Amino acid sequence: MSTIRAIIQRAAMSTKDPATQMQMIRRVLEDIHGGQWGVLIIRNPSMVSQVADVHWTIPDHTNSDGSPAFCLAVVNRWQYNVFKTGYVDRADRVTVLDVVNKIRQQDVKKPEKVDATLPGDLFLMAR
After folding, report:
1. Alpha-carbon distance 63 to 116, whole Å?
2. pTM of the prediction?
3. Chain-centre distance of CA 115, in angstroms?
4. Do the beta carbons of residue 82 and residue 32 sit within 8 Å?
5. For residues 83 and 117, which has the higher predicted lDDT (pLDDT)?
6. Residue 34 CB contacts under 8 Å (≥ 6 apart), including other chains
């Protein structure tokens, strides 16, 4: 849950737009943990609790590493409810392993060995 909370905090610091925050949080969590994620952002949680009782359930999901796939956090007086909704990955999911493999497959030119000695003809011309 601390990983999810850190992602929420980072998104909240980067922009004040809740729609952008929601997309950032969802995309990062889907890339890190896989599956599909839902993000609910409530700008004024006290207003919601005063107007009506809100009851909702979250699927009992965990990530493949056993960590919880749910987080409720309040950042800058906004409430963030983040939860995993399914295990099917997006076709364009980017994993850390994908990035590492791409870096390894790049044709990186290695620096050529430099010969510090001058050929005989050049040595004579340099004198």
Report:
1. 56
2. 0.68
3. 46
4. no
5. 83
6. 63, 64, 87, 89, 93, 95
